[in-house]
Here is the input.
Amino acid sequence: MSSPRLLVLFGSQTGTAEDVSERLGREARRRRLGCRVQALDSYPVVNLINEPLVIFVCATTGQGDPPDNMKNFWRFLFRKHLPSTSLCQMDFAVLGLGDSAYAKFNFVAKKLHRRLLQLGATALLPVCLGDDQHELGPDAAVDPWLHSLWEKVLGLHPGPLRLGVIPPGVPLPSKFTLQFLQEAPTGSEEQRVARTDPQSPPSELQPFLAHMVTNQRVTGPSHFQDVRLIEFDISGSGISFAAGDVVLIQPQNAASHVQQFCQLLGLDPEWCFTLRPREPDVSCPTRLPQPCSVRHLVSQHLDIAGVPRRSFFEQLACLSPSELERDKLLELSSAAGQEELSQYCSRPRRTTLEVLCDFPCTAAAIPPDYLLDLIPVIRPRAFSIASSLLAHPSRLQILVAVVQYQTRLKEPRRGLCSSWLASLDPGQGPVQVPLWVRPGSLTFPETPDTPVIMVGPGTGVAPFRAAIQERVAQGQAGNFLFFGCRWRDQDFYWEAEWKELEKRGCLTLVTAFSREQEQKVYVQHRLRELGPLLWELLDRRGAYFYLAGNAKYMPAGVSEALTSVFQEEGGLSGPDAAAYLARLQRALRLQTETWA
Here is the structure.
């Protein structure tokens, strides 16, 4: 009897769930099991009733939300009228990836596990709860869980007799082959991936190439951080957006890094190739033009500036001709070597390119066919839109903090997208940036007399500028903005704009400049000081409360300030104040958008 094909379905936001799913696929193939790996929203969910063996790998994002590439699946699966025997022929397991620093730790995985049981499916194992906060990361939970999973799966569905497991050091076939062309094709890659359907709104598969109009530093020259206000012309794009929406931007690797990578691997950037999948159910990456140059592949597709995951070292070891380098790579990819891998790679944020420089014999021997197996795709970066079409027609503005910091490595660490954007100068000639828009997590009330309290320290103020511009253009009053930064003369974004709106009676502005006095003052201190006003707005006038900014300390400080106000001004007990806060969240009258 032939073994059933294993199906691995993933919902991934940052790429970790996809990486774990690909690992599952490789481990299945080493055990001679057929396996498909797919994003949840690319899989026809109605076919689940015919699947005997499915592993779900899913991350939890934001406030317990499913990742973008599983939202359609999620809506379908939670339809109320699905029969309780819908999936009675399916064996399944759920592997969750989350962060225990958040209240709704692995919420999506737990809820999916319960729902699959409700629909009649049989769980092979309890849900796996991978945790980013563990010193060894999610693998601390994933490794033992996978060991148990394969015991269960092979117990139910033994592989072919006489064929053992393919050992870890033996390379599996690559997913794709690169067939190099004798002559370069005519036309640019940009033309081959440009939008072919101007009627459909821009998307990740068909981004809009927006002209950058301005790229202006808005922090003072002596300020420690470079923050940019960048404006794009979106005329003719069909893009529309509302306050709270986000723009996604597809960044590129630095030209110097592309050149260094090609030299290490012995690749000519001008070579052109076509991509062919080895398996019939594997499709080529949709964002890659056909034919494609090596330069385009490395500059716009392969994330050589990202920090490589454990799977990179595992696969690299299989391809290494150097015994010394191979032994080290195997050590770093082993379960026992995870602390060393963390010290070498994760903590200092060493990039894929830097790792390849440390393993030069291995890098020079990598067959081009394996590039897409080894190195993940560059992911788009999301930015809160900082302008309204009502105030700036045909324009889209973002506020970008250029990421740069030092680790124990000599070279400073730089954010790929923010550094790339900062390097672009529309004053030197036309600059185009691939982008598209999607709804954000913040939604604002449409009723004209509902007050809105917005707390946006630092670049967290960006979505609130869009909201204030939109509300003022629509004649909506009751706009209260709490803004915090370090210094009034260094990082007070849009100071003149806020002051003008204050003069017109369209805005109440409350500021906290943390470094301008001996005791640091933050937005949460201002909220406490204005407790009577807050209670009046929230309890008597039905105000909505919004918070955006860094996730590290500020959200907890603001929650504590609100709870304190509810107790002092509303006369509530501690538990009642916490329940009041929870009611505001459930009614969407308290919304947050935070990032690490």
Observations:
- The radius of gyration is 26 Å.
- The mean pLDDT is 90.
- Residues 350 and 570 are 51 Å apart (CA to CA).
- DSSP finds 20 helices and 22 strands in the chain.
